Amino acid sequence: MRFKSILACFALPLCFFGCGGGENAGPAAENSASTAPKNETSTAVVEVVDGVRHVHNTGPKWRGGKGLRLDFVRKFGEFFKPFDLCLDSEGNIYITESGNSRVLKYSPEGALLTSFGRHGQGPGEFQIMGGVAVDDEGRLYITDRTTNRLKVLSPEGEELANLSLGNITGGIERLPSGEFLVSKALSYDAGSIPGLVRVMDGTGATVRSMGRQELRDDYDEYRYFNRTAFAVDRQGRVYLAFSTRNKIERYDPEGNLELVIDRPLNFEISKSVLQVKRRIGPREMEIPQANFVSKSLEVDDHGRIWVLSYDRQLTFEEQPLIMHIFGEGPGLEATKTLKTSDDAKTDAFVIHVFDLSGVFLGKIPLAHFADRIRIFRDRLYILELSNEMCLYEYRIIEP
């Protein structure tokens, strides 16, 4: 048998805001005006570099439990390879289940209402389902990661449009303007790509792009150090959180960079990608390895920025692995989830929360694996993709 791909997954659950610690990776820049902390309670140094606000956070603003709190509401779903989720204006939850090429619709109370979609390339069909977004009319925008297309579906699942997007990674966000935001798959020919994410109109044409790439000679380093999560707020501003860099960026609706944020971490930022030999089942393989910083982000109705982050690095033994094993004949495929540890809980993840100006408010420790976060009014939803493949719901309690 041969191994086609091995995908490592990650972890997360709940709590309240506590104190941060660790190392702040925010060097001073030239052509900048700096504002140092004015008293002992100040927790950030602010620079303005070429008109862009850079916030170097040294610690959390909220201390002594004076922050947000999460109350567990429910955990539901036993999904097969979920990829993304979104919520409509009524609070209904849509989850793209790529393993079954379908969309699952849940009520705000967590009851399954309906499902639609199937595997294929015809109307309402998907090869490998990706990101999902919804507009005010309930229309769904779903990417196909294999065909690089965007399909627009009615609330009942009828296909309304089928657009070609070029080479994409799968995520999608709707902008208040009616345009949508996608991330372009990275190419080793970096000079030909205008940005990390791009805004597209209703025809699939690129309107503008944003997010400067970091050029690397090594292909793994190029992929790892340009990997981002993205989100959009109610004003149409775009946020990027870099997976392996201690950096969060905000762009105005026209695509101009206006804010850069870093924060204290409990581990070193990787300067390069290492090739580490690991034994996976019967094979010893070289696996690229770097320290990860951020996984997902969201902006709430108060303008606060929530970033799903690492509080420490997972060991290899903690990571669930998905393997696609192919037999000798065509179509003989089996998917196998290998877990080097049976413990589904972990303390490796936290949610870092920042205010609208980029000041680090505090962190919420989590106790279970997690991959995507979404906020709807006073509810936080955490989608876990590869371990238990479920959805967690929490109520956000204001201080």
Give the gist of this structure.
This protein has 399 residues and is mainly beta. Helices cover 2% and strands 49% of the residues.
Low-confidence stretches: 1-40, 324-334
Question: How much of the polypeptide forms β-strand, as a percent range?
Answer: over 45%
Overall pLDDT metric: 84
Biggest sheet architecture = 7 strands, mixed
Report the principal-axis shape: globular
* N/C terminus separation: 56 Å
Tally of distinct domains: 1
DSSP strand count: 36
- Rounded to the nearest angstrom, the radius of gyration is 21 Å
CATH architecture: 6 Propeller
Question: CATH superfamily name?
Answer: TolB, C-terminal domain
Query: Strand order across the biggest sheet?
Result: 3-4-5-24-23-22-21
Q: Name the CATH class.
A: Mainly Beta
Structural class by SSE content: mainly beta
Helix content range of the residues, please?
under 10%
Determine the number of helices (DSSP H or I, runs of at least 4 residues).
Answer: 1
CATH fold title: Neuraminidase
Q: Could you characterize the architecture of this molecule?
A:
This protein has one helix at residues 219-225, and strands at 2-8, 23-24, 32-35, 44-49, 52-57, 69-76, 82-87, 93-97, 102-106, 112-116, 118-119, 125-126, 129-134, 140-144, 149-153, 159-164, 168-174, 180-184, 197-200, 206-210, 228-232, 238-242, 248-251, 257-262, 264-265, 274-280, 283-289, 294-299, 305-310, 320-326, 333-339, 349-354, 360-365, 372-376, 379-384, 390-397. With 399 residues, the chain is mostly beta strands. The strands form ten sheets. It has a seven-stranded mixed β-sheet, with no helix packed on it. A four-stranded antiparallel β-sheet has the order 6-36-35-34, with no helix packed on it. A four-stranded antiparallel β-sheet has the order 7-8-9-10, with no helix packed on it. The radius of gyration is 21 Å and the shape is globular.
